[in-house]
Design brief:
Layout: H1 6-14, H2 21-40, H3 43-59, H4 70-91, H5 104-109, H6 114-124, H7 128-139, H8 144-150, H9 155-180
């Protein structure tokens, strides 16, 4: 028996068969939680945002276009939720400029050690636009075409920006590694 594609599962959810949302939740909940963790740097907020995302998927299921990529659609919703979160953090004056930034204690608390901790720390120091592009493209496997659609730009612009993001990450990573002796 063939496994149903994400688009078919979501089409069935859109048609009112909400039980299929469980399959999508099982497949995507960790990816979405990971995305929010990298973007916010806060695990508890990320859990709340992940829950909000799946509630929105159900609420806005009628807007899904089965001719388009489900993965792009779900991450577009995640991106919108993060934008709302960022605005609320800015409105509450709770360190908006440092969204996603973590320190040594936070990295260790989330069980990132050694090079993983250094990478997580370095990614958290990237500007939001670079961090988000790297997370979606390199960690979640969105294709340049999907990223271009998500960011309302061209594939070549995404490729150039990805290269700049990787270079900036490399710079932060090695600067941090050299300054800390590989200890965060």
């Amino acid at each position: 028996m063939n496994e149903l594609t994400d688009e078919i599962l979501m089409f069935r959810v859109k048609s009112g068969y909400l039980d299929y949302m469980a399959d999508l939740f099982l497949k995507y909940s960790n990816h979405i939680l990971n995305y929010f963790c990298y973007m916010t740097g806060k695990i508890e907020d990320s859990k709340d945002l992940t829950q909000d995302l799946f509630l929105r998927l159900i609420k806005y299921r009628k807007s899904f276009d089965p001719e388009k990529s489900f993965k792009s659609w779900i991450f577009q919703i995640a991106k919108n939720i993060f934008i709302d979160y960022s605005k609320s953090m800015h409105h509450n004056c709770a360190g908006y400029e440092n969204l996603g930034s973590i320190d040594k204690d936070e990295a260790e608390k989330n069980n990132f050690h050694g090079n993983d901790s250094l990478l997580y720390y370095s990614i958290s120091r990237l500007p939001d636009e670079y961090r988000e592009l790297l997370i979606l493209g390199k960690f979640h496997g969105l294709k340049y075409k999907d990223l271009a659609e998500l960011f309302f730009t061209t594939e070549s612009a995404v490729k150039k920006k990805m290269l700049r993001a990787l270079n900036k990450l490399r710079e932060i990573y090695f600067k941090t590694e050299n300054n800390s002796g590989n200890e965060l």
